[in-house]
Design goal:
The complex is a heterodimer of chains A (209) and B (426). Chain A is of the alpha/beta class. Helices cover 34% and strands 22% of the residues of chain A. Chain B contains 16 helices and twelve strands. The chains are: A alpha/beta (209), B alpha+beta (426).
Chain lengths: 209, 426
């Protein structure tokens, strides 16, 4: 499902060079990428999502060389096949929970199935808040919403950037469990990057940068 | 879910900014279109009421006053002239038509004009009901007069002296309505027309002292003129002991050809104790004067338009800048740059749409109300419907300015580096 080949990236401004070990993930496999701050974790994640263009090497997702796609095709491909989960819990402030998920589906050009959304909201314990505005949600609810936003469109790949670093132990494990459960249900690959070593033992594959 | 819906929700999520943007833009639209409408109505009124009158001959005094009184029926006349002298001028071969008019009285504020039956042909006003005036003390009334004062054919009324309603002194002779004119949106709608004899009769039967006193008051407003008319007046007063000299207020003249403009006014001013005024020239002068005021209001309107453009720009730019992360996030959801630009642009255009709606409603409701409360309306400016062309033209100006605001505001979206934003703001 995910293959990288001798990925290189250079930041033009600072001249930093990163080279990344190759990644080989099959369908439904998961991967934890551990590393200290500043070692290029987020860079690697953005390369996998096609948000950055590598200065060398290739990223292949589900048989598609994403760097060979045109700008707009890559946008569409990313929207449909990749789900990003961020540490910073962001959603469109002017929309409520349900509208955010529907907007997500709209931009990914996926049909919105009310019962599927309902199930997802139930699984993440958000269904009682679906008509609430974003700024009325608690921290934990926002964290779960950002997971919902990452998986609602049934992506083939879920990429999570430091999803647990600001959480206490209990919530940290809950979030990882939720991510894995959602990945399982949609038969997606899950890649988590973090410097949080608490979650080391939970993944099939681990890679240290 | 659609881009439109998201834009709309964005607008609703910041009601104060949205309201401010709509309000300032609507205000500038109201001013721009309102001033245009008043100007257009004013011009229409002026041009229509000239009605082929090339020259007005009347007592010496302010030519503008003479024109305002005799053509637009707004001001008081400069005084009276001898009908005998006026008729002599009318015989000049350069003159096609010369129609005498005579003033003095009103009914409920509507001026009673003594004239000939040719008068209504000047305005191409047809009779709606009844017939033309055939003898003294018969009147044909304009449409507004009929509607406002509820007069019908066969009704009679007493006139009051002077040109304003406030005058409590009334004459004893009764006028009888014999005809009602069709509405034509010209000054004749507000006039009561009788023949010259009616005016002379009414005034002749009144007591001499009363007559003099009243006329004196009426003419008093023009200092330059006073001496002259006063003298005339005395003479007239003496004359009327034996026989009443026929006087009129002014003579409305149309020329056979443009040569008339060159020679006649000069001859009249020099050789007679009357003056000739050219309505077109006088009204152009007046209009130039008013034009400055219109221009200033238009500039203020454009200024407000620019301010509202800035308000919209700031509101959108703020959103693009402050919510860079949200927008980057939308990109990761699969939204294209174009969709994000649309999202912001739709917000701007929604503001324009509501501002136009709000503005036009204000224009339809508030402007007529303002006009009627300032008495301009009753004095002569009938509000014309605003031409679609003008709405269209101002609409384009507004849309261009707002489009520029939107374009500058969305520019950062085009240069957005998603990866940077996502990793920096973490």
């Amino acid at each position: 499902m995910i293959q990288t080949d001798k990925l290189l990236f250079q930041y033009k401004k600072t001249g930093y060079n990163f080279s990344f070990p190759d990644i080989q993930l099959k369908k439904q496999e998961d991967l934890l990428i551990l590393g200290k701050s500043g070692i290029g974790k987020t860079t690697l994640l953005h390369l996998l999502a096609g948000l950055l263009v590598p200065s060398g090497g290739k990223v292949n997702i589900d048989g598609v060389d994403i760097n060979a796609l045109s700008h707009s095709k890559l946008d569409a491909f990313r929207g449909q096949n990749i789900g990003l989960v961020f540490q910073k819990k962001h959603a469109i402030k002017s929309l409520n929970v349900l509208e955010n998920l529907k907007a997500r589906l709209f931009f990914s050009k996926k049909k919105s199935d009310d019962s599927e959304i309902e199930n997802l909201l139930k699984a993440l314990d958000l269904h009682t808040h679906k008509h609430n505005k974003i700024n009325t949600l608690s921290e934990g609810q926002l964290q779960r919403l950002s997971i919902a936003m990452g998986v609602v469109h049934n992506p083939k790949v879920i990429l999570a950037d430091e999803p647990t670093s600001s959480l206490d132990d209990e919530n940290c494990f809950n979030v990882i469990k939720l991510l894995q459960k959602q990945a399982n249900q949609t038969k997606a690959c899950l890649v988590v990057i973090t410097h949080d070593s608490r979650i080391k033992g939970f993944f099939q594959n681990t890679m240290e940068l | 879910m659609s881009v439109w819906k998201i834009s709309f929700k964005n607008l609703l999520s910041k009601p104060f900014y949205s309201f401010l943007s709509v309000f300032t833009l609507a205000l500038s639209i109201v001013l721009l279109l309102g001033i245009q409408q008043i100007k257009a109505s004013f011009e229409y009124q002026m041009e229509n009421n000239l009605a082929g009158i090339d020259m007005v001959v009347g007592a010496k005094g302010s030519p503008l006053q003479l024109v305002l009184a005799s053509v637009l029926h707004l001001d008081n006349p400069t005084g009276n002239i001898s009908y005998h002298d006026a008729k002599k001028i009318g015989k000049n071969p350069l003159i096609k038509d010369a129609i005498p008019i005579s003033y003095g009285d009103n009914y409920k504020g509507f001026r009673i004009v003594g004239t000939t039956n040719d008068f209504r042909n000047l305005y191409e006003a047809d009779l709606e009901n009844g017939r033309d005036v055939e003898k003294a003390m018969e009147v044909v009334i304009g449409h507004s007069v009929a509607v406002t004062s509820n007069l019908n054919i066969g009704d009679t009324f007493l006139s009051s002296h002077g040109l304003v309603e406030a005058n409590i002194e009334t004459h004893n002779e009764e006028f009888t309505v014999v005809g009602i004119l069709k509405p034509i949106q010209k000054v004749i709608d507000r006039l009561i027309i009788c023949n010259l004899e009616s005016i002379w009769d009414v005034h002749n039967h009144d007591s001499q002292d009363h007559h003099e006193e009243e006329h004196h008051k009426e003419r008093n407003h023009d200092d330059l003129d006073e001496h002259d008319t006063h003298k005339n007046h005395k003479k007239e007063a003496l004359d009327t002991h034996e026989h009443y000299e026929e006087e009129i207020t002014s003579l409305l003249v149309s020329f056979r050809n443009p040569t008339g403009y060159l020679t006649l006014p000069r001859v009249i001013d020099k050789d007679t104790n009357m003056q000739a005024a050219l309505p077109k020239y006088e009204l152009d002068k007046l209009y130039e004067f008013l034009g400055g005021g219109f221009k200033m209001i238009a500039w203020i309107a454009y200024l407000i338009l620019i301010i509202s453009g800035l308000t919209i720009f700031i509101s959108l730019y703020k959103m693009v800048k402050e919510r860079a992360f949200d927008l980057a996030l939308l990109r990761t959801y699969g939204a294209s740059n174009l969709q994000l630009i649309k999202m912001v642009a739709y917000e701007g255009f929604a503001i324009v749409f509501f501002a136009f709606l709000f503005g036009l409603i204000l224009l339809k409701t508030v402007l007529p109300y303002l006009l009627s409360s300032t008495k301009i309306n009753s004095k002569g400016i009938m509000l014309q419907p605003l031409p679609i062309k003008d709405i269209f033209q101002k609409g384009i100006i507004v849309i261009v300015i707002i489009t520029i605001s939107i374009a500058i505001a969305v520019y950062p979206i085009m240069k957005m580096k998603i990866s940077n934003i996502l990793s920096n703001e973490k």
